[in-house]
Amino acid sequence: MPNFIETIFAQMKAAEGRVILRELRESQFLSVTGGELLERIQVVRNYLKTAGVQAGDRCALLGPNSISWVAIDLALLAEGVITVPLYFRQAPADLVGMLKDSQPKLLVVNDAAAGECVGEAWSDAPRTITFEEIFKAKPSAAGASDPISRPGSDIVTIIYTSGTSGEPKGVCLTVDNLSHMVSCTTERLDQLMNQSGNRSPDSVFHYLPMNFAASWLLMLSCVSGETTLTFSTDLNKLADEIVQASPHYFLNVPTLLERVRRGVEAALAKRPRPIRSIFRRAVKAWQRKSAKRGWNDSFWLFLGQTLIFGKIRERFGRNLVALICGSAPLAPETQQFFLMLNIPVLQAYGLTETTGICTLDDPRVPVQPGCVGYAVAGTEMKLTENQEIVVRGPHIFPGYWNRPEETARVLRNGWFHTGDQGESNEKGNWRIVGRIKNLIILNSGHNIAPEPIEERISALIPAAQHAVVVGNGRGYLTLLVSGKVESGTVEAALDKINSELPHYRQIRKSTVVPEAFTPENGLLTANGKLRREAISSRYAVQITAMYEAQLSPAVAKGKTA
Fold first, then answer.
1. Which CA distances in Å does 130 have to 61, 77, 335, 457, 548?
2. What single string gives the DSSP state of each residue in 191-240?
3. How far, in Å, CA of 420 to CA of 381, rounded?
4. Do 536 and 470 form a contact (C-beta atoms < 8 A)?
């Protein structure tokens, strides 16, 4: 049976005259067919040979998503070289740390400026070459050659984790890991498109950087099937690019979908009173189960769908079948919002160590907001005594690069310990509760997962960029809120939340901080996850002040100040 690399090359040959990749450049499509992509790949393979890069060597790849990025990546796979994809917006110091750890023979960058930044931060940086320099050569007259044969245990990539705490680790993934997972994802995506009745090649839009496992996996799945994949090249024009690409589906992170929902709600709040009234009544009608809807509800739903919902949906193009969301749990309210627009959001759960995915919503059954779907084929999942999710299957990584102790800590008796707390229902639909290492243990002994509380706060305070619950080792919980938010708004939200929570999970004090949390200032990971230790360190003074202040009698009894 062919491995995933061989399958991709066979598909490119079959799609010799069909467009398979596109870039959006200034509202114009830059496209390549399967045959043209094979020619570009061969140019890169020829260059690698002349540069002395051999099978088993490591090559770092630094640049935004592009056709050239894909051609270089596939060429490395075909030559048996281990790809080390790096985030092009990462701080130079972080990039140097990953390069020192992986020791690549060659660093390939999208432009000279990126290479200069690395060189300034590390005088012993590996030989650096730009995309442009590689593609100067003309295609070989001999044409494209087949990929070299590789055993299933061969490492094909080292992907560095986002490092929510501590130093990022290099996750090694093998030929077998990718062959299994590409087949799983293409199967689920085929099910999605079969449900929609689509008979043309899939149209997929892609804006998430391919140095992340799930993003890279989607690209590999697309080029291994009958798909046209369109890359975003300007995040500032994302809304226009989505309409122009008119995809059937695309991969998202919760941040974007939350932003869309809040943006729509904010825009509607400024519309004339009749429109606001229709929207409000239509939402309430939709929220009632079908069996409980009367003619009045049907009337408002019809108006809402005709005058408002359809226009919002148009922002995603005319062909949208579903959205796919991963990297973190999506707020149930946001998933419900898109369902109301007749846009299913399929959630996925996984880690880099599980080749990006463990679960994915089944498109043949209704999605359940708050859940992340069912285990993909070949995946076993169970809970330990402390409700940690452990996983095993052919997609589990063999280990971290040069970190045997870290590998032994998470791989035990064939099971990978995810560090995530979860639960599943009787049908096997999983829900993620939180990260075990994020658990807050109060000095009363109560264990609290902060994520559900933070999600609830974010839902009640749309203007908040992030909400971070703290209190480990303390007597009660406190809250940091980032963004342009009034303290009165936070207090009103906490009054509501605290009334729904037991005393030990109530938040007694809060502080609003104006600074935005970003990857650039070290408070978020590259894919938008909170760096809790860094946040606690940055705002140690504010946090300490919330515990040194005298609690009022009402707060001491479990009520907010």
1. 10, 19, 41, 45, 55
2. HHHHHHT--SPEEEEE-S-TTSHHHHHHHHHHHTSSEEEEE---GGGHHH
3. 12
4. yes
Neighbouring-strand partners of residue 61? 85, 108
Q: Which of 87, 120, 81 is nearest to 104 (CA)?
A: 81
Tell me: the pLDDT tens digits for 459-497? 888 888 899 999 988 889 999 999 888 889 999 999 999
Q: Are residues 388 and 495 located together in one domain of the fold? A: no
Interstrand relation of 170-174 and 359-360 (parallel, antiparallel or unpaired): unpaired
Name beta bridge partners: 120.
none
> What's residue 560's pLDDT?
38
What is the average pLDDT value for the chain, to the nearest integer? 90
Is the separation of the CB atoms in 268 and 308 below 8 Å? yes
Sheet holding 323-325, edge to edge: 28-33, 19-25, 227-231, 202-206, 249-252, 323-325, 345-349, 359-360, 374-375
Read off the DSSP letter of residue 373.
B
**Amino acid at site 98:** M
Q: Which residue's entry shows tokens 């009660």?
A: 476
Confidence bin at 141 (pLDDT 50/70/90): low
Residues 242/206, Cβ–Cβ less than 8 Å: no
Please name the residue ranges forming H helices in 305-385.
Answer: 310-313, 332-340
The answer on 408 and 298 residing in a single domain is yes
Domain, as residue range, for 28: 4-140+150-175+189-232
Both tokens assigned to 312: 């919002």
| Helical spans, DSSP H, in 341-443 | 404-410
CA distance 99 to 121: 11
Rounded distance between C-alpha atoms, residue 32 and residue 392, angstroms: 38
Q: Do 50 and 38 contact (CB within 8 A), yes or no?
A: no
**pLDDT recorded at residue 165:** 54
| Contact between 152 and 176 (Cβ < 8 Å) | yes
Residue 335, domain member (yes or no):
yes
Q: Is residue 241 in a domain? A: no
Instruction: Convert the pLDDT of each residue in 102-113 to its tens digit.
Output: 999 999 999 999
Longest dimension (CA), the chain: 84
Model-level pTM?
0.85
Helices 67-78 and 34-50 sit at what angle, rounded to 10 degrees?
Answer: 60
Does residue 453 lie in a domain region? yes
